[in-house]
Amino acid sequence: MPMTCAERGGYYEERRDKALELLAVKGFGQVSMRELASHLGLTAGSLYHHFPSKQHLLFDLIEELFEELLATLQPPRRRRGGNEDWLTSVIDAHWQLHRERPLQFRLAERDLCCLTDEQQARIKHLRDDYECQLLRLIAPTAALSKAARQAAGHAIATLLNSLPGWLQSSELPEAQRLALMQNLLLGAIERTLHDSAQVCAA
């Protein structure tokens, strides 16, 4: 009996996850298409029916990650509480995303340079959009120059996506690690925006 669309989709996702694991553990440049095929239980020829190239697969995984990061910034329809409460929910969403997709974050940090120029340009566009939206939501009325806004957005996004990796390996209970991340980020965001505004006013 032929597989249904749902079964084929699940089969593809399963193989994609196995490919992600191999690439993340060994590194994009250390995995050949032949090794990837063997890892997935496919012949080298049939692998191309699933993934046109290693770069195509890598791009797909990194692009998906940045699209998920953008999704963490979608504000709830009705905000309850002040801006800090909403910001805490954004931090929580990033923490959860890092828990769910640690291997994709590793690939994005380490192997982005292995993509084609066109693919890197697409990822840069997504990253810039993410950082711009992040700052717009955090400080919609901040009086910053364009350069200061870009620098502040990049700094805050870097912290937001570095702290989970640092803290998740800690021996502290998870609730304490998350609370520490929230406190560090809320303080850093307030200070970053204050310092950036001071520079602009000087």
Automatic annotation (TrEMBL):
This is TetR/AcrR family transcriptional regulator. Keywords: DNA-binding, Transcription, Transcription regulation. Pfam families: TetR_N. InterPro entries: DNA-bd_HTH_TetR-type_CS, Homeodomain-like_sf, HTH-type_TetR-like_transc_reg, HTH_TetR. PANTHER family: HTH-TYPE TRANSCRIPTIONAL REGULATOR BETI (PTHR30055:SF234), HTH-TYPE TRANSCRIPTIONAL REGULATOR RUTR (PTHR30055). The keyword Transcription applies. Residues 9-69 form the HTH tetR-type domain. GO terms for molecular function: DNA-binding transcription factor activity; transcription cis-regulatory region binding. Residues 32-51 bind DNA.
